């Protein structure tokens, strides 16, 4: 097996198994530079340790894959293999180091060393185990962690000091009143200015040629079986590229589709069919703390609801579960904190919002998204999946574990498939005030809760990325998404005055690819 690294496992396996070629160069990151001009592995310093980063040169070229056997190098276990206090491995609990590294290092050498150093996965509460390999688990966090190798973005799935977004950090509570927020400091409100229309024309030839070149690099580095990318610049035009199977041209946008669910809910609020301050119990009975938690809490992930896909039994048996079944799982876990007291990502919260839409709008979430967004905007490539209805015409999700993943299982927590150009058009319409009043769009970024670490924040159906890539400060307004076998990002960059959208199948990251595309806008037209 070659030293081809899956980005989801790279942070762990770079510590656990270091494959080196004859010339001594690290040979475990096939895609290391996606926009940063210098520095090292930024993924090691976020759990309070601030260990010295690796010395990888971010040169922008792909390391040639070499075998890591006896003739070409070795696989060694450095001291850093031991987990730090409070750290969690980004893979299912109980996996041996052998399993974690099987896609990173030479199988024989890695397994021999790993067998002698089996590393248990640390958990503070075994009953609250969280495995990010579940298809429905938000992998926006994993996407950001992968990108930190290049962009110094903070890893959303890590346990940051001061952040309390992991279920194991909470216990079931009984709530009688709404609580004041006691989590990590919130981000100041972000001003969202109205975006000018994006003309239906190609970007200038100079920019388009650079973007074409970047796209080819992304294809080579990710080896994705399906890839779609687009860059939209107000007043200038749109660039797009897609390769996908002819019979399955649409790609899954995972949690980046949550913005569609949020827009439908906000439209219903504007129409007076519901209020964001409605208690959840007004629409759905039996929700933990449902008399206190509001629809706004579900949108913002401040309800305290457990995410049903994190349940050990649900993880062991991945399949579509309807909202009623997910609610039964949530009831068993109870409220993790009183509504408003903290922030914690919950796919089940958006699953329940889909039920609220069905009752308030008298149609399913896929029908509402189609009628309210896709059809009026003429987004012909986009399709809202029927929850549990299958995914015909969608590029197959390719996972390292060869696990079959059906995107329709996500329901309202990830309802959309399509190409990047139409995702960019959707965001241009949203930021341009064509889907919601401008004041409502601005409200989506008023209360921004810190996610798993500083630098990434959650609003009402959107995310704000506020970080530095080593060369410049980056602020993006958008949403990331991911699942085993797929990764996606769509965001507006005020500094570049552009929307970027990237989705792919496989286990590579999309955030660094998006940053490369945005940087290509600089230069002669």
TrEMBL record:
**Superkingdom, natural source:** Bacteria
Start and end of every Beta-lactamase-related domain?
230-511
Stretches with biased composition (Basic residues) = 58-67
Origin organism of this chain? Azorhizobium caulinodans (strain ATCC 43989 / DSM 5975 / JCM 20966 / LMG 6465 / NBRC 14845 / NCIMB 13405 / ORS 571)
Q: Where is this region: Disordered?
A: 40-71
Traced from the root, the source organism's taxonomic lineage reads:
Bacteria, Pseudomonadati, Pseudomonadota, Alphaproteobacteria, Hyphomicrobiales
Supply the name of the protein: Putative beta-lactamase
As recorded in UniProt, coiled-coil segments are none
The protein's matches in InterPro entries, at most eight in alphabetical order, are given as: AmpC-like, Beta-lactam-related, Beta-lactam/transpept-like
**Matching SUPFAM superfamilies:** beta-lactamase/transpeptidase-like
């Amino acid at each position: 097996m070659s030293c081809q690294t899956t980005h989801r496992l790279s942070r762990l396996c770079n510590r656990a198994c270091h494959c080196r070629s004859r010339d001594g160069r690290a040979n475990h990151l096939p895609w290391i530079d996606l926009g940063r001009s210098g520095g090292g592995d930024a993924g090691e310093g976020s759990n309070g340790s601030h260990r010295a980063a690796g010395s990888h040169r971010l040169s922008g070229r792909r390391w040639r894959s070499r075998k890591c056997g006896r003739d070409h190098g070795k696989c060694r276990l450095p001291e850093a293999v031991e987990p730090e206090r409070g750290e969690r491995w980004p893979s299912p609990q109980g996996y041996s180091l052998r399993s974690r590294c099987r896609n990173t290092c030479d199988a024989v050498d890695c397994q021999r060393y790993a067998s002698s150093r089996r590393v248990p996965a640390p958990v503070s509460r075994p009953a609250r185990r969280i495995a990010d390999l579940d298809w429905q688990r938000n992998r926006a966090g994993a996407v950001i962690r992968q990108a930190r190798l290049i962009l110094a973005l903070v890893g959303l799935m890590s346990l940051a000091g001061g952040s309390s977004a992991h279920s194991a950090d909470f216990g079931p509570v009984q709530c009688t009143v709404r609580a004041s927020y006691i989590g990590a400091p919130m981000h100041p409100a972000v001003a969202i200015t109205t975006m000018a229309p994006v003309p239906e024309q190609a970007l200038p030839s100079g920019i388009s040629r650079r973007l074409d070149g970047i796209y080819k690099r992304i294809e080579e580095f990710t080896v994705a079986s399906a890839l779609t990318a687009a860059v939209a610049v107000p007043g200038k035009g749109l660039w797009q590229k897609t390769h996908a199977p002819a019979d399955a041209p649409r790609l899954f946008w995972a949690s980046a589709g949550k913005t569609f669910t949020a827009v439908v809910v906000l439209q219903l609020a504007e129409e007076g069919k519901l209020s964001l301050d409605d208690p959840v119990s007004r629409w759905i009975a039996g929700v933990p703390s449902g008399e206190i938690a509001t629809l706004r809490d579900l949108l913002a992930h401040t309800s305290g609801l457990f995410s049903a896909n994190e349940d050990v039994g649900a993880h062991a048996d991945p399949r579509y579960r309807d909202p009623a079944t997910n609610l039964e799982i949530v009831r068993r876990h109870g409220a993790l904190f009183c509504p408003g007291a903290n922030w914690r990502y919950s796919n089940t919260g958006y699953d329940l919002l889909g039920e609220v839409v069905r009752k308030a709008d008298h149609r399913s979430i896929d029908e509402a998204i189609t009628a309210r967004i896709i059809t009026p905007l003429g987004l012909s490539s986009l399709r809202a999946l029927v929850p549990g209805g299958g995914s015909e015409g969608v590029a197959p999700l390719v996972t390292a574990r060869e696990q079959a993943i059906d995107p329709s299982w996500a329901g309202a927590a990830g309802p959309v498939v399509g190409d990047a150009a139409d995702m960019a058009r959707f965001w241009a319409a949203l930021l341009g005030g064509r889907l919601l009043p401008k004041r409502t769009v601005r409200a989506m970024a008023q209360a921004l809760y810190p996610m798993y670490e500083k630098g990434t924040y959650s609003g009402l159906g959107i995310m704000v990325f506020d970080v530095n890539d080593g060369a410049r400060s980056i602020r993006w307004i958008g949403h990331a998404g991911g699942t085993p076998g797929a990764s996606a990002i769509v965001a507006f960059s005020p500094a570049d005055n552009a929307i970027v959208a990237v989705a792919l199948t496989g286990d590579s990251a999309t955030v660094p690819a998006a940053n490369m595309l945005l940087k290509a806008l600089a230069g002669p037209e």
